[in-house]
Amino acid sequence: MIISENVSLIYPDKTQALFDVNLEIKPGELVYITGPSGSGKTSFLKLLMGMEFPTSGSLSVLGETINKSNYGNIQKLRRKIGPVFQEFKLIQGRTALENVMMGMRFLGIKPKLMKEQAHEALEKVGLGHKKYSKVENLSWGESQRVAIARAVARKPLLILADEPTGNLDYDNAINILKLLKSFREEDITVIITTHATHLINNEKDAMFINVYKGRITAERKGLAV
Amino acid sequence: MKTFLYNIGYFFKETGRIIRLNILSNIFSIIGTGLILFLLGLVITGSDIGNHLVNMLNEEAEINGYFTKDISDSDRNELVEKIGKIYGVRSARLVNEDEAKKKMEDILGEEAKILELFKENPFEAFVEIRINVDEMENILDNVKNMKGIEYVRDNREVLEKIKDITYAFKVLGYLLIAAVGITTLIILSHMIRQGIYNNREQINTLRLLGSPGAFIGFPYVLTGILLTLLGGILAALSVVLLINTAYEGIGSTVLFLPLPSKNDLIDKMIILIPSLSFILGLMGSLFGLSSIRKK
User: Fold this and answer.
1) Predicted confidence (pLDDT) at residue B159 exceeds the cutoff of 80
2) Chain B from 232 to 271: CB within 8 A of any A CB
């Protein structure tokens, strides 16, 4: 699923974001990437999305090598990923339903089925009643749910959620994490970055990757491996 | 292809949204493109009328060959037949002395009375040769050197002018078409770039979700085509209105002017201007998109 060998990432301004990352994530795993702000969590997700390329080492995601020369295939890879961006990246002026469908339009799904999948995803995240609301009229938590619905409606193999609990109160944050974890039952690999470790301390069946100043330590708990 | 078919409705909706997003600027773009295409329509109409006029004059272009005194009637007829076969000659016809006099009377009109002063018909028979202006030199050389021809009256200056006018009309037409085409392309590609800039966040999100470039770009291509087509329709209607008005005015005041058929001209404009606007719209949009893609 994801194989990282000695991956380092240095930004053009010479900031080194990641050092020698070695890890393997298997299909269907739930992965938490933790660490303080600026530690390199988002940089790692960007690498997985093909938004950045490793400066050295090799990285393979869902069988695709992440490097500049493979850019054409990276677009195809992105279609198999359900991203939940930290700042949501919802399209303003559109309804929740339109936003969810927007992520599916180029996947070759028949319009009727596409609409059904979008409705289903919005129901799953508890926003069935707000599907026709414009996204700018939704609360932070609701917007987060729309972003999750957009990610899962595409039936991805991998969900990448960047700080999905940021700016949410405790109850909402727990609910969002529960929701994201539930997609594991559909054999989707779920990778979540968070700096709120208190929300996941009691997790018993997941892989924990701790990032500190660009260096990674990984630990598996429970049956996930 | 399948994806495109599934999303036809979406593409048109997006196009409408892109246009509405910057409605005032787009209305001005339609008017601007319409004005440019209107100018193009005027040039094409003018060029068509000019070409028609030149063709008419061309058809009337003639030289006259005068016979030597000693030539017999049968030799004259044989000579006329021979001239008729020269490359570039449209027709050759013998004009006898009486017809030559009649022609002059027609030209002189009321002043023809002056011819009554002559006891005998002063006019000679000649061969009236209608020619293709482009072949004038060759025909003149041939006819002048024929046995039985005394001299040739060629109206060379008039015929040369006709040739020059035809050439000038063509060059002017091509230059204006090129100028209008380039201007439309520049306006349109700028419009498309502006549209893409206004929607850059949405485009970026779609890219991150894995959307192919063609899927992202298609609504912008449609936008370009639609705006130019609207400009083209506006221009075509204006040109048709102008042709109608001008024909009514010219038809009643300058009766001798040989104008091409009004309906043919209108039909041509109705098809040509929108088609041209469609092609320019498509090219301009693709040009605008490709210049963005490079960045």
Assistant:
1) no
2) none
Structure tokens at A139: 């609360």
Instruction: Give Rg (Cα) of chain B.
Output: 30
Q: Residue with structure tokens 């850059």?
A: B200
Of the residues A106, A110, A114, A116, the best mutation for testing chain B's interface (the one with the most B CB atoms within 10 Å of its CB) is A106
Tell me: the pLDDT tens digits for B21-40?
888 888 988 898 899 889 88
Domains assigned to chain A: 1-80+158-225 (3.40.50.300), 89-155 (no CATH)
Alpha carbon of B227: minimum distance to chain A alpha carbons (Å):
23
- Residue A191 has φ and ψ, to the nearest 5°, of -115, 125
pLDDT at A224: 42
Burial of A4 (0-12, 13-18, 19+ CB in 10 A): buried
Q: Which CATH number fits the domain that encloses residue B84?
A: 3.30.70.3040
| DSSP 8-state symbol, A129 | G
Pick the more confident residue, A2 or B184: A2
Residues B101 and B176 reside in one and the same domain: no
Q: What is the pTM of this model?
A: 0.74
Please give the order of strands across the beta sheet that includes B126-131.
B89-95, B126-131, B62-67, B149-153
